[in-house]
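Think of the structure tokens as a kind of shorthand, similar to the way a musician reads notation: each symbol stands for something richer, in this case the local conformation of the backbone. In the example below we present two proteins back to back. Begin with the first one, reading the sequence and then the tokens, and try to describe in your own words what changes along the chain.
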Amino acid sequence: MNYSVLVYYDLILYVLGLSCYIPLWCMIVLLIQVIETISVSVVLPSESFLLEFVWTLFPTLLIVILCFYNLNYLMYYSGIGFSSPVKIVGHQWYWHYELSNDVMYDSFITDIINSVNKPLRLSYKVAYSLLVTSGDVIHSFSVPDLSLKIDAVPGRINCLSLIADRFGVFSGYCTELCGVGHSYMPIVIEVVFPKI
């Protein structure tokens, strides 16, 4: 057996022993002190009931208020119906889009810089839920002009809510170093009038 493995094993045993000994010793000392002072009432002269009440009440109220605002925020944004899911799958080195109306297509780079053959077309003021994943390696779906950035991880679906608040063509890119063709993964989102 290798000597360094034995040293590591001994080190782990020492750390484990200390991790058990120190809490056990503290509990024994605390128990002895409690048993010795059961009949004696200890009152320190610096105790102040009002001060202790205030420093207990103030953080409690602060936590209750922050929880209330947090729950209101979560309830407000969960109440918005993101009924239009868009599945986005990153591949080496293109994006695959699946819209809620059973439209599926791949988006490849063209000869023009930051341009693709089929952009992702979204409607203005429609709530979307972008479900982003990857089919091979880690990618990152990033469109800075729309404040979008979410990682595409194989085997995991990350969700991002989007309501496009302005018209236009917005370009982005994969911001994760995903391989040799990393620079050949532009993202183009077109925000248009909703179809009636």
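Once you have a description of the first chain, move to the second and do the same.
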Amino acid sequence: GGRPPPPSPVGPGGRGLAGRNRCTKAESGGLACFLPKMTPVTRQEVLGLYRKIFRIAKKWQSASGRTEETLQEKEYIKNEAKTLFRKNKHVTDPELIKQCIEECQARIEIGLHYNIPYPRPIHLPPMGLAHKQGRTLRHQEKLRKISKPIYLKSHDDVS
């Protein structure tokens, strides 16, 4: 017959095709299992950020220098990273992935600069954004959401 044989269920190294979607021991944080639909470059960038966060957490020292605070902040950094990366594991829209990467980078930079692992809050008065005559509170809420800095986009979803 002129038909090619069906694809073999055994992948490279005899591991089988199912082995491709499983985590390796080095990726046991779970993130690599969640990145099947990204381009290789984006996948590497996300994994790099994930590893960078855990390296930062490992070396983190609180501003006060107290051991108890340092341990709490290290734990917060790790838990926040795990929660947000797992929350966004099914994101496939390249634009949304880009926004998540930008938020992650911004939070890393701000955290390192101010030596505070928690997102810096913003303070807007309840009706402090300009609005046109006759607009409602819903419009204010929309303006507040739009004006939220990139490093706080996912903060309300998690905390």
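Compare your description with these statements about the second chain. The helical segments are 40-59, 67-87, 94-114, 137-147, 155-158.
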